[in-house]
Design goal:
- With about 80 residues, this protein is mostly helical.
- It has 2 domains: about 35 residues, no CATH class; about 35 residues, no CATH class.
- It contains 5 helices and no strands.
- The longest helix is centred in the middle third of the chain and has 14 residues.
- The radius of gyration is 16 Å and the shape is elongated.
- The mean pLDDT is about 80.
- It holds the Pfam family Rho_N.
- This is Rho termination factor N-terminal domain-containing protein.
- InterPro entries: DUF7218, Rho-like_N.
Length: about 80
């Protein structure tokens, strides 16, 4: 049975399966139910692409989120690892 506070239960479950927190999954599922998935997807932040970051900044971010083996990675490997995380 769907939860009362979740407007798009199917999307909520997919997000939870991908590792999103309950709060974030609910926020995304409810926003897309009200505005449509395409509209919510375009909302995104204004952060520059990882390709535009300096390697030192990529290393710092990789350390923050716990990517292992980062010290031996090239810039492109760091970008790929951060995108896949």
């Amino acid at each position: 049975m769907p939860r009362a506070q979740i407007k798009n239960e199917k999307q909520y479950q997919k997000l939870r399966d991908k590792g999103q927190s309950k709060e974030k999954a609910a926020r995304i599922a409810n926003a897309s139910a009200g505005q449509g998935k395409k509209q919510v997807g375009h909302k995104g932040g204004k952060s520059p692409s990882y390709d535009d970051w300096k390697k030192d900044d990529l290393m710092k971010r990789a350390r923050e989120i716990g990517i292992e083996g980062r010290s031996k990675m090239t810039k492109q490997q760091l970008v790929k690892a951060l995108r896949n995380h």
